[in-house]
Amino acid sequence: MSAKPGTSVAAATVVGNGNPSINDINLEALSLSEGIRESPVCIIVLGMAGSGKTTFTRSLIQHAQSQFNPYVVNLDPACREVPYAAHIDIRDTVNYKEVMKQYQLGPNGGIVTALNMFTTKMPKFAELVRRAGERGHKWCIIDTPGQIEVFTWSASGNIITEGLATMFPTIVVYVMDVVRSTCPTTFMSNMLYACSILYKTRLPFLVALNKIDLKECSFVQEWMTDFEAFQDALEKEQSYVNNLTRTMSLTLDTFYENLITCGVSAKSGVGFSTLLTHLLECVAEYERDYKPVYEKMRQQRLAEQATVPDPAAHIEEAGVAVPLGLDLRDPVSNTDNSVFLMAPSLVPQQLDAAEQEMETDAKGDLEDQNFQSFVQNHMTAQQSKRDKQQQQEQQN
Ligand SMILES: Nc1nc2c(ncn2[C@@H]2O[C@H](COP(=O)(O)OP(=O)(O)O)[C@@H](O)[C@H]2O)c(=O)[nH]1
Ligand SMILES: [Mg+2]
């Protein structure tokens, strides 16, 4: 069993083998310039809630122990307890209930935020994984949060997956509950999810068809290889999404072609020796196909780092620096360091007293002149009116 979760958000303790706190880790050898290491191989365990990820992780640890001495990571901040001894447990770094309280979040927001907080320590996490590799851990197994989207559709999930894949050989195991997939439409949505993760992560991918102690998985493998068999199953189901599912199954054909599947029971351990063989195939696939791609990405990042100019050196080109910590209640001034909240031409100009007096005088004179000419014009108009009246009276 793992250690009890920490109590404060800032607390960070890593358990097992007398490891130091994650905050105390000094980044020694981790750098982009070093290249992808041989070990440990990172195995990220993904799958829908309740598909059996945690139980699968436990079984995988047991089966891989003697050969691969796995280093174990739990990234689910909301689980009560895990059935294995974790070397790194997110619950020791972040207390998700405390996060919910402090940031007034619901359970989902709390879990996502907890994972985000953990991800801020990604370099230290990666350093621990690197050190584990040096100590002889050939595999690093990573159990992810119960709700799959917390990991697959969050920035932190991306950062963790990509971060690991650019430093270590990394593969994804998608755990699928065969009992829940007997309905063709549910099977299809599960497969679409798997497909989207495959294209998103761009990593070797293995589908573990779990819970075969309850239901044989040959029907899933048949649906994947035989289009007609899937259509027959679909015919028997009265569902308004049948047409969509039919079209989707055609689309997924290419996805199925290269997909490795393996039936297992995480509970009883059946199928795990075959699974280990498939995992080794995935590692070879990473070395052969994926490593060159990640190597290229790493080189690009190095090149970017070398060409990105130091912003401080180009401050004049970038514009006037905005002082940090500016109190927005401060009156707007026109000193060189200030932020212009109005276009400079619209900021009222301060005039000195004499100038102000002169300006009011000038204005007053103009107004006086205008008034006098108005009166003059008015009097002239009145006079000409009276003259006209007199002329008319004389004519009559
Ligand atoms: N019968 C059977 N039950 C399983 C198997 N794997 C997991 N379970 C059960 O499925 C439930 C969810 O498993 P869990 O590992 O917590 O799923 P997670 O949310 O994906 O981590 C638990 O009740 C497990 O005991 C299996 O291979 N066979
Ligand atoms: Mg779990």
From TrEMBL:
InterPro entries linked: Gpn (IPR004130), Gpn1/Npa3/XAB1 (IPR030230), P-loop_NTPase (IPR027417)
One GO MF term attached to the UniProt entry: GTPase activity
Annotated stretches, region: Disordered: 355-396
Compartments, as annotated in UniProt: Cytoplasm; Nucleus
Quaternary structure, from the entry: Binds to RNA polymerase II.
Protein name: GPN-loop GTPase
Compositional bias of kind Polar residues: 369-381
Residues annotated as transmembrane: none
Purpose: Small GTPase required for proper nuclear import of RNA polymerase II (RNAPII). May act at an RNAP assembly step prior to nuclear import.
Entry's family note: Belongs to the GPN-loop GTPase family.
SUPFAM superfamilies: P-loop containing nucleoside triphosphate hydrolases (SSF52540)
Main location: cytoplasm
Any one GO CC term of the record: cytoplasm
Enzyme Commission number(s) of this protein: 3.6.5.-
Keyword Nucleotide-binding recorded: yes
Key words, A-Z: Coiled coil, Cytoplasm, GTP-binding, Hydrolase, Nucleotide-binding, Nucleus
